[in-house]
Amino acid sequence: IQYPFGRVVSEYKRGVIRLYCRIRGHILRNRLLNEIGQYIPHEGHIAEFGCGFGIFCLCFALTRPRAVFYGCDLNTGRIEEAQRVVHALDVQNATLTAENALTFVDKVPDLDCIYMLDIVHHLPPAEVDGFLEKVWRHVKPGGILVIKDISTRPWHKMAFTWILDVLMTKGEIPNYLAPE
């Protein structure tokens, strides 16, 4: 699938957001969208927890018009920008909300697919297992749960991501998990 990454990014008004998305896209875009995308159904109810500016959710929604996408993120500013892009691109099958994933999951229908890209490391380590168990309960039988997160290795990639995380979250210290 050819994802409309550039088209989505071009709709963000603030240059710093476009730059962030381009950097993140340069690191992840084609490989990630194709690898994750193979698991995202073309129909059904699909949610992305921690959708940020909505770039991946919108790329998937634009290539899967028969699916309904829900995205949530704690950052109200990111969601407001994402909603503006939803309207600018006239994306009819995506709804993005500023809310915590743990409360949001209770408000959407049971889902055919949930995916989370780089959010688990933002949770306190003691809450990870409970969070994942709750999320899994909202996936329909036979549904898909995709989790992609940052590892502690290789150290140079982790260090680069740590800097981005601290800058983007205004000082929150991430809790990366070792591959084991």
Q: Helix segment count? A: 7
Instruction: Name the strands of the widest sheet in spatial order.
Output: 3-2-1-4-5
Mean pLDDT: 88
Strand content: 15-25%
H-E string: HHEHEHEHEHEH
- Residue share in helix: 40-55%
Give unreliable regions as ranges: none
**Strand pairing plus helix content: what structural class?**
alpha/beta
Rg, Cα atoms, Å: 15 Å
Total count of strands: 5
Question: End-to-end span in angstroms?
Answer: 32 Å
What general outline do the C-alpha atoms trace? globular
Q: Main β-sheet: number of strands, strand sense, barrel status? A: 5 strands, parallel
Short descriptors:
180 residues; alpha/beta; 44% helix; five-stranded parallel β-sheet; globular
Describe this structure in words.
With 180 residues, this protein is of the alpha/beta class. Strand 1, helix 3 and strand 2 form a beta-alpha-beta unit. 30% of the residues are buried. The model has no long low-confidence stretch (mean pLDDT 88).
